Amino acid sequence: MLTVLALLAGLYVLLAVGLFLAQRSFIYPAPRDPGVAPASFERVAYETADGLTLHAGYKPARAGYPTIVYFHGNGAAWPSSVVATDRMVPEGYGVLAAEYRGYCGNPGRPSEHGLYADGRAAIAFLERREVEPADIVLVGNSIGSGVATQMATEIRPRALVLISPFASLSRLAGERFRWLPTDVLLHDRFENIGKIAAVDAPILVLHGDADSLIPASHAFALAEAEPSIELAIFAGYGHDLAWHDVAEIRMLRFLDEIPGALADPEP
After folding, report:
1. pLDDT digits (tens, 9 = 90+) for 117-165
2. What is the Cα–Cα distance from 47 to 54, expressed in whole angstroms?
3. Active-site residue set
4. Most buried by CB count within 10 Å: which residue of 63, 98, 130, 143?
5. Which residue in 93, 190, 188 sits closest to 144, CA to CA?
6. CB under 8 Å to 235, separation ≥6 — which residues?
7. Nearest residue to 247 via CA among 84, 73, 74
């Protein structure tokens, strides 16, 4: 019996060590193919504070309209952000489909603080294009919610929109791997719930009640932490909510209702 227990304990330790060492390959299954820039978007490049040159996609806004900075999920790539905003662009919104280190042929390896550096570089790119923070709408889908929330604590954007977000990656990992000491093992935490109250901007959270990857309970937890959040739960939708028209339609309505949302846009 002692031998069996020792063997099981050894296997448990080996599994925990393996997950500890390989966790970022699971968290960031980055597509490597640089892909093709969708029509009407230009492929742009900007440099991070730690010296990486990242390529992303950009469509300038029509005069008087804000620009969406879109942070995609962990298994996607910046062209997917173009699909997720295809109703926004015809309305006049600009889109910076931000990209991460290690994704789509970009150099570097993704990590929580690396993605924050990438987010800052994206915003700095817009500043060089004379797009002010008040004309930026930060949108984060899934793990991108962590980047968008962090950026919203560093600038004062026009709005923050989180789609299928987690309250925190650490909470999600704890729910998924209850038999592991994830608090000790996890490198990257993306503690949205601890930051959301510091965001000085209107916030919209969208989540599907059939999301099996990040349960809608995480959206409710964020709304409980910050009562000013506008929360929309979509019946029957899963973790792919961002690519459904209902999400964009709800985003457009939310942005249109922000006081002074559009300053004398061109016809």
Report:
1. 999 999 999 999 999 999 999 999 999 999 999 999 999 999 999 999 9
2. 6
3. 142, 211, 239
4. 98
5. 190
6. 208, 209, 210
7. 84
Residue type for position 222 = L
Answer whether 156's CB lies under 8 Å from 130's CB: no
Residues 169, 194: contact at Cβ < 8 Å? no
- Please, which residues bridge with residue 53 across strands? 47
Judged by DSSP in three states, 141 sits in strand
With 0-12 CB in 10 A as exposed, 13-18 as middle and 19+ as buried, what is 94? Answer: buried
Integer Cα distance of 222 and 219 in angstroms: 5
Q: Which helix (H) or strand (E) holds 78?
A: helix 78-83
Q: How many CB atoms lie within 10 A of CB 189?
A: 17
Could you tell me if 68 and 163 are in contact, meaning their C-beta atoms sit under 8 angstroms apart? no
Residue whose tokens read 């978007």: 41
Residue 2 has pLDDT above 70, yes or no: no
Give CA separation, 35 vs 78, 79, 101, 128, 161, in Å: 9, 8, 15, 25, 26
- Sequence-ordered list of residues with C-beta below 8 angstroms from that of 230, at least 6 positions apart, any chain: 202, 203, 204, 205, 254
Total-model pTM = 0.90
Measured distance CA(76)–CA(29) in Å, rounded? 9
Joined tokens for residue 170: 């650490």
Q: How far apart are CA 51 and CA 49, in angstroms?
A: 6
